[in-house]
Amino acid sequence: MVTANQIQIPPIHIQWRKLLIKGCADLSLKLTDQQIDLLVSYVEQLVKWNKAYNLTAIRDPLDMIKLHVLDSLAIVAPLSKLNAQRFIDIGTGAGLPGMILAIVWPEKTVHLLDTNGKKTRFLTQFKHLHQINNVEVFNQRCETYLPDMAYDVVLSRAFASIIDMLEGCHQLVSPRGVFVAMKGTYPQQELDAMPTNYSLLNCATLQVPGVDAERHLLTIQKQLT
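Structure (tokenized):
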């Protein structure tokens, strides 16, 4: 007979996994068991590295899942409509949303760029740990980075402002490519400050599971001359 004291408490990873699975269901996003495992491992590694290198101000793993991972997964559906193949995540930090997108889209190319060496080392370690071969990590400023091939989508989640993104990353986007900015509240002032040769193509209002805050995804394109 098993007494109450002999019952083993399930590993905390089970709780993380359940939260991820529920969040994906709320987003109508179908991921494989392997992809869920990779996301769980990402959180595990982020928690581990965060203790030494302060990669994110969020400490609680469940909050990391909601505010970082599910926040990144919330843009998968609108980005899928672009039918893009090459992405670069500018100021990626701990790989948000870029590393999450690379896990979801193993068939697409996702590059991660950040000036913080501790964060790019974390990303490089995670890439090698799981052999995520569609990812490349660059420790460089966006203004000085010159890719061999331009990107379909230049993406940012934590970049300073839309105008800084457009001015600092203009050399990265293909002629028919787009800039995509993840924002909280609708950034009317930032949009008003955009150069006249750029236009807002779309603004999607997002609902992140478990997060009671505004989220907007803006798609911007330079007008062809």
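The beta strands are 86-90, 109-114, 135-139, 151-156, 173-183, 198-206, 215-222. The radius of gyration is 18 Å.
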